[in-house]
Amino acid sequence: MSTNPDLLPVMPKACHFTHILAPVDFSEACLYGLSTAAGLARRSGAKLTVMHVVKHLPHGSRMVLDAAELQQEWQRCARENLAEFVRAHVPEDVHAEQVVREGKAFDVIVREAAKRGCDLIVTATHGYTGLAHVLIGSTAERIVQHAACPVLVVRGRGGKPAEELAPRWILVPTDFSDNSRKAFPFATALALEFGAKLILAHVKPGIPMTGEIPLNFTQEQIDAVHAQAEVRLRQFRTEHFSEHLDTTTLVLEGNAHECLVKAVISDDPGLIVIATHGHTGWQHALLGSTAERVVRHAACSVLVVR
Prior knowledge:
This protein is an alpha/beta fold. It has two domains: about 15-160, HUPs (Rossmann fold), CATH 3.40.50; about 165-305, HUPs (Rossmann fold, 3-Layer(aba) Sandwich). The chain has helices spanning about 30-45, 65-90, 105-115, 130-135, 140-145, 185-195, 220-240, 255-265, 280-285, 290-295; strands at about 20-25, 45-55, 95-100, 120-125, 150-155, 170-175, 195-205, 210, 215, 245-255, 270-275, 300-305. The protein has a ten-stranded mixed sheet with strand order 3-2-1-4-5-12-11-6-7-10, sandwiched between helices. Strands 8-9 form a two-stranded antiparallel ribbon. A hairpin with a 2-residue loop joins strand 8 and strand 9. Helix 5 packs antiparallel against helix 10 and helix 8 runs parallel beside helix 10. The longest helix is centred in the N-terminal third of the chain and has 23 residues, at about 65-90. It is elongated, with a radius of gyration of 21 Å. Mean pLDDT is about 80; it is low at about 1-15, about 130-135 and about 280-290.
C-alpha cells in the first residue's frame, strides 16, 4: 500500500480496537448495538464497557420531597437492570464492565468515552425519520457530532440482532481530500478482517438542468467530466489501497448523502465507512453533515471517523 502515513491515523491490524463503549437504553433497538460491540470485543480482545444513562430529575421539581433519594433509587434500579441486561445479552466469554451515569445521554456518552480512552463507540439507532425524527432527535447523530473517537452506528437487519458485525461489502466515500482519507485505514482493516469487498465511491455534484437540457453543457462535456472523475478515482484507489484488496470504484452524481444511501441498497449485509469534517456550532448549522445524513437514512450500519 502506498498511502502516505503522515496523512492517516494509525489503525491497528485486523481492527484490533482496545476499548469499546456500548451505551444501552434497554430497548429492543439497542440490542443490535450491544451484540455488535460484544462481537467486535471478542474478535479484537478489546475491553468492553456497557453503559446506561439515567436522566436527571427536572430542576426545581416538586414531585417529591426528597429528589436526591429518588435519584439514588433510580440509579440502584438502573444498576440492577443493567446487570440483568448484560447477563442476558453479552456472551459469557466477553467480559463487560457495567457503568451507570446521570445526565443528557449523548453528552455523558461522549465524555465517558473520552475519560476512559475508548477508541470506538458502538451505538444503535432507532431509525426515526420525518416528523418523528424532528420531534425526538437522535442520540446517535449527536454522538457522531461530538465524539472524538470513531462511532459505529448499527442498524439491525431482519428484525433480529446479529451476533456480530459481518459485512460482505464496505463502501468508503471520498472527495479526494486529506480529511476523507482518514476513513481509509479503518475501511482497509475491516475489509481484511471480514473478507469484504471494498467500494471506493466519489459523488460529483449534479449539473444544473433547464427542462431536459443541461444548462451550458453538451452531452459530450458531461461524459468527459464523468470520465475524468472515474480516472481520478481509479488513480486514488491505486495510491491508497493495496492491490491485494478486492476493491472497485463507483462514481455517482447528485446530492452526496442521497447518492450514497441509494448506492448501498443490497440484500447482503454491508457497512459504510465515512469521515466527517467535525464542524460544530454555527458552522455545523450552516454546512450540515453528509455523515449525519447518511447515518440517519442508510439501511446499513455506518462507521463515522472524525
